[in-house]
Specification:
The protein has about 180 residues and is mostly helical. It has a domain at about 90-180: Serine Threonine Protein Phosphatase 5, Tetratricopeptide repeat (Alpha Horseshoe), CATH 1.25.40.10. The chain has 7 helices and no strands. The chain has helices at about 35-70, 75-85, 90-105, 105-120, 125-140, 140-155, 160-180. The longest helix has about 35 residues, at about 35-70. It is elongated and about 75 Å long. It starts with about 35 loop residues before the first helix and ends with a helix.
């Protein structure tokens, strides 16, 4: 299996894993509650903890990219799974896992991960494209056509999506329907 692997390192979509509970000193009551200073210390500590979690997830994501690019696919999946445990709303982690599962010829898992990516970010054309590719591998051609069309709708200037993915899926769908009519 000699396939080129390329993952993008975009940091603009990082999301915090969990909502960090920050206490506002202005909302504190004077009747035996927490002092303003204690609340401020708690806020700073909570912010640092959340920031370190996001940084840990980012580090795991980058390790996974490195491992995948060096054909350590199982290790890459494990790193991204660890990152997902920290930042479960990062659609890119699921999409990258989907790509690697396809390389490993685990198309059902690839479709599951791509589906999660599209659920997290419905307007992300890359997620829909990856889902379509996984569905093509599973033989779900009609669904693949639908999802490549969604991806193209979200990114109409991508000629490779139009000329490669969507065109191949439509061609396969047409040949299947012609065979069914015979």
């Amino acid at each position: 299996m000699n396939k080129d692997i390329s993952f993008t390192k975009s940091s603009s979509f990082w999301k915090q894993t969990k909502r960090c509970k920050l206490v506002s000193p202005t909302l504190l009551q004077d009747d035996g509650g927490i002092s303003d200073n204690a609340a401020m210390r708690e806020n700073r500590q909570t912010k640092r903890s959340c920031a370190s979690s996001v940084e840990k997830s980012k580090s795991l994501k980058e390790e996974g990219i490195f491992l995948a690019e060096n054909n350590n696919l199982n290790e890459a999946i494990m790193r991204w799974s660890e990152a997902i445990a920290i930042t479960p709303n990062d659609e890119r982690l699921f999409e990258m896992q989907s790509q690697v599962f396809m390389l490993m010829e685990k198309d059902f898992q690839a479709a599951q991960q791509a589906e999660k990516a599209t659920q997290l970010k419905k307007n992300w054309w890359i997620g829909w494209q990856t889902l379509g590719r996984a569905q093509m591998n599973l033989g779900h051609i009609q669904l693949a056509v639908k999802n490549f069309s969604r991806a193209l709708h979200l990114n109409p200037l991508d000629n490779s999506l139009r000329k490669a993915d969507l065109a191949d899926a439509v061609k396969r769908w047409n040949s299947l329907t012609k065979e069914a009519l015979r």
